[in-house]
């Protein structure tokens, strides 16, 4: 099924990264700046992230002896230092996820770079090192984002959906490892309801959502793929879902041959097997097009 399977460390069948995006209330301030403070229920739902869910997830990871990756908007890093300390104490990675969850592809390039650099600085201050990886808020990776990743020396991106295994992004100046995921692996699609974001979907039972994630895992295990969740503590860290998550991790462990890893370690592995010639990656050159395709007339503005 996979034409150029990557050799995983120690002959593992697949790599698993249970990544969480701890957006907390950044997304409410971004969407409803003036009214955010008056939306108390939504605020409480979002603050469940740092107050309840992340501590629970850090405990769960410790129980299973695995280290994982958390993406935090830098504003959340500054706002919730005790939660950041818990994540770091657990040996987990903190990745770049914008400053206030702003959408890069809706900004001017200089605005995107301003928030990008401001976030790097906040991560450096809180963790003692710059971020190794980036996930664009709401997948809003812009035509300029790769240039900034290359310029600032980040090792990987985890925003795109272009393959089932790692691949490389090349802008002509440098390369970044892409660690892709896809919508089925995002818990919003299965569990999110929030009137203040205009997001009203039927909620699945934890077991039904888990069926999707487990079947994705079974395929990754069978064919040598990469399984990356794009989850949110306030959704997957809720009691019944966290219990189902514990069962899923136990299932993966029982199956054997699974490499549980932080994304920075997966990116480092990819760079190693590419450098020593033991694997030839697929390469995407970005941007895909220099502008709108010429086959259609440009609209007069
Ligand atoms: Zn996010």
TrEMBL record:
GO terms for molecular function: hydrolase activity, acting on carbon-nitrogen (but not peptide) bonds. GO terms for biological process: carbohydrate metabolic process. It comes from the Bacteria. Residues 39-261 form the NodB homology domain. InterPro entries: Glyco_hydro/deAcase_b/a-brl, NODB_dom, PgdA-like. Coiled coil: none annotated. Gene3D superfamilies: Glycoside hydrolase/deacetylase. Pfam families: Polysacc_deac_1. Belongs to the polysaccharide deacetylase family. Is involved in generating a small heat-stable compound (Nod), an acylated oligomer of N-acetylglucosamine, that stimulates mitosis in various plant protoplasts. This is Chitooligosaccharide deacetylase.
């Amino acid at each position: 099924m996979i034409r150029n399977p990557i050799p995983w460390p120690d002959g593992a069948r697949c790599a698993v990264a249970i990544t969480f995006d701890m957006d907390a209330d950044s997304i409410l301030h971004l969407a409803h700046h003036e009214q955010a403070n008056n939306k108390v229920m939504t605020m409480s739902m979002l603050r469940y992230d740092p107050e309840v869910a992340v501590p629970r997830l850090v405990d769960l990871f410790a129980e299973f002896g695995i280290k994982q990756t958390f993406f935090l908007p830098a504003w959340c890093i500054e706002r919730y230092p005790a939660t950041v300390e818990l994540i770091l104490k657990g040996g987990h990675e903190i990745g770049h996820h914008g400053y206030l969850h702003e959408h890069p592809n809706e900004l001017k390039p200089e605005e995107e770079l301003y928030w990008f650099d401001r976030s790097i600085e906040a991560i450096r201050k809180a963790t003692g090192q710059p971020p190794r990886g980036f996930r664009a808020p709401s997948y809003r990776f812009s035509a300029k984002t790769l240039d900034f990743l290359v310029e600032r020396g980040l090792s990987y991106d985890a925003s795109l959906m272009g393959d089932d295994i790692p691949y490389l992004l090349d802008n002509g100046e440098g390369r970044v490892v892409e660690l892709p995921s896809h919508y089925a692996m995002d818990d919003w699609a299965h569990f999110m309801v929030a009137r203040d974001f205009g997001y009203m979907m039927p909620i699945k039972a934890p077991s039904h959502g888990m069926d999707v994630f487990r079947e994705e895992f079974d395929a990754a295990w069978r064919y040598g793929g990469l399984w990356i969740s794009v989850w949110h503590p306030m959704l997957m860290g809720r009691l019944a879902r966290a219990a189902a998550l514990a069962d899923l991790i136990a299932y993966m462990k029982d199956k054997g041959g699974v490499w549980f890893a932080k994304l920075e370690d997966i990116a480092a592995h990819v760079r190693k097997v590419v450098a020593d010639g033991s694997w030839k990656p697929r390469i995407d050159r970005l941007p895909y097009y220099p502008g709108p395709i010429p086959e259609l007339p440009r609209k007069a503005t």
